[in-house]
Design goal:
The protein is of the alpha/beta class. Helices cover 39% and strands 25% of the residues. The chain contains 3 helices and 7 strands. α1 packs antiparallel against α2.
Length: 155
């Protein structure tokens, strides 16, 4: 079975490493304290605080495992070419249907966060933008129809 790799920028890898470190230190210390307090309430079989703390602990440990796996299989993408959209590019676009302006950071799947403008190079918009140049118009299939974006700048 082939191992999945996670494409990311050097900055993205550093952010994931920071999150991992925080979870391993502050996150684990915090959850240990919550478990200690919950245990002090007595009978664990009917202790909702204890159940909640154990659930939170499981989520933290799952996220730690996920981050360790992603970082272990990370492939850093060099973004030297600023004339073409690639991973690590910050792209300013205008949606042609309504002249709405957007700025997207093209990142790897593990780093994507659309609410912060960080879109994956594997997302429909990311796939359309990667490889394009300033002034190009790209089309993206969306549930509401085809959206066209004109690339204003690449940083």
């Amino acid at each position: 079975m082939a191992t999945k790799t996670f494409k990311m920028t050097a900055q993205g890898k550093a952010e994931l490493e920071k999150e991992l470190d925080t979870l391993k230190t502050e996150g684990r210390i915090d959850i240990a304290e919550k478990l200690k307090v919950a245990r002090s309430y007595g009978d664990l079989s009917e202790n909702s605080e204890y159940d909640e703390a154990k659930s939170e602990q499981a989520k933290i440990e799952a996220r730690i495992s996920e981050l360790e796996y992603q970082l272990e299989h990370a492939v850093i993408i060099d973004t030297a070419d600023k004339d073409v959209v690639s991973m690590g590019s910050r792209v300013k676009v205008v949606r042609l249907s309504d002249n709405a302006e957007y700025t997207f950071d093209i990142v790897g799947f593990a780093q994507s966060n659309p609410s912060e403008g960080k879109i994956s190079d594997e997302s429909p918009v990311g796939l359309a933008l990667v490889g394009a140049k300033k002034g190009d118009v790209v089309s993206v299939e969306a549930p509401i129809g085809v959206l066209e974006y004109k690339i204003e700048s690449i940083d």
